[in-house]
Design brief:
2 strands, elongated, mainly alpha
């Protein structure tokens, strides 16, 4: 049951993170990002990778909460 619940959480979250990544970076250029009034000096690939994992984590938290709430009686 744990593996099934994990896949119910991870797979939709992965797809959501992928779509969100495409939407966000269609409008934002990683070379123009700033953090605390300093330009981000990471490569574009590093920004894409880190942001994808952040999006995936947030989506997994939301999906996990949905599975948790749905499994309650």
């Amino acid at each position: 049951m744990l593996k099934q619940n994990l896949m119910w959480v991870a797979w939709p979250a992965f797809l959501a993170a992928a779509v969100l990544e495409m939407l966000v970076f269609a409008f934002i250029d990683p070379s123009e990002l700033h953090w605390r009034n300093q330009p981000v000096t990471w490569s574009a690939q590093a920004v894409y990778t880190l942001s994808f994992f952040i999006f995936w984590l947030v989506a997994m938290l939301a999906s996990g909460l949905a599975v948790l709430l749905a499994s309650r009686d």
